[in-house]
Amino acid sequence: MSKSSLIPIAFLVIAVIAFSPSKLFGQGGPALVEITPIVSREVASGQTFVGTVTPPRRALVGSAVDGRVIEVFFEEGDRVEKDQPLAQLLTATISLELAAAKAELDYRREQLREMENGSLPEEINQARARLSRAKVMAEFGQRELERLAVLRQKNATSQSEFDSARSIAESTQEEFDEAKAALQLAIDGPRPEKIAQAKAQVAMQEAVVNKLKDQIKKYTIYTRFTGYITVKHTDIGAWATQGGAVAEVIALDEVDVVAKVVDSQVAYINVGDSVRVEVPALPDQALTGRVEAIVPQADVRSRTFPVKIRVKNTIKKSGDPLLKAGMLTRVMLATGGRTQAVLVPKDALVLGGAQPVVWVIDPASITRGDQSQQAKASPVPVRLGVADGSLIQVTGAIDPSHLVVVKGNERIIPNRNGEPSLVNLVPNTATPSTSEVSQKGDGNVVD
Known about the structure:
Blueprint: H1 3-18, H2 21-24, E1 31-37, E2 39-54, E3 58-62, E4 67-72, E5 79-80, E6 85-89, H3 92-117, H4 121-153, H5 159-188, H6 192-218, E7 220-222, E8 227-232, E9 239-240, E10 245-250, E11 254-262, E12 274-278, E13 287-294, E14 304-312, E15 328-345, E16 357-361, E17 367-368, E18 373-388, E19 391-396, E20 403-407, E21 421-425, H7 434-440
Parallel strand pairs: 1-21
Antiparallel strand pairs: 1-20, 2-11, 2-15, 3-10, 4-6, 4-9, 5-8, 6-7, 8-10, 11-14, 12-13, 12-15, 13-14, 15-19, 16-18, 16-20, 17-18, 18-19, 18-21
Helix pairs in contact: 3-6, 4-5
């Protein structure tokens, strides 16, 4: 055989190896899984109701003041955080008023500080010097008056000259008394009443400044909780009126699924009950919630009561919520007496297909080696029932004495011939009996 004829055969061998069934199904070895017993116990019988995803909080954010919109920081669909600015109004005029009010406040504070500090030593020395000069002038005026009084008795001077000397003496004495009082005032400092008045003026001006600051804050419009913008009511250049709408915000970190239950069945539902929630638009999601409220007011036409089921939402890395307001849901609510049921952890469910599937293991198929344990897992289609804590009721061809895979089930590759698939068990996997798990409830369930 020539070399040229060998080349196609070599390529054929490589192709067969590359595209063998084991490669196509990614079977690099049995999947590593974790198992737990299936639970069998009594649960309340349930019924499916249609529900709608609604936001637990919804706000129409408005403007507290009139003003021109100069900036908008959001678009419809954006996620916004608590106290995040949404829009900014023009504040040029009020900013000037605030600057003037702050300057006036600084002036009044300095006045108060001057009063509280009292007189400077230089001011006291100046007052003493004025007192000394006034004393000299007063003593000179008194001596001059006494001299002219003697001369007047001897008719050696005129009456007008004597009267002028007396006037000067009285004036200089008054100036001396005034200088003496001024020195004492400089030593004592401002009166307590004056300081109290200055403090009141500072407080009044502080109130004016705070009022203007608060007004400026109102020119920035904020959201008061974390959520998503659903409606945009304004844009740059628009005139915002006091009380006018700027944006509509809804909270979706948690959502309420509202289902309407007839009056004959609502009595079986209790606040705090665990509820399984199905969203047709999200078939690969296993969701559970709890009854948050039962509105005690029925629709008089349909005789149904709104039941709110609170569900924790998943926020994607992009910020987009998994559950969106208005989505259609189906909820399984307890509406009757208790019945024996088979339950598995929600992690045991493999969703996304035409019907939910769980992988079950017969304990008799477990083989133990020195370093590992292996078992055979079989896929079982199931129908879902009521939720009970972290467990979900399932109906199907399941033996309660078997075990169920709760981790690694998405990596198990089904065999083409329908035979069970070989899996490796997580080392030291605990496999208590079904009766022990049933007595302990979901305490042994891996969640």
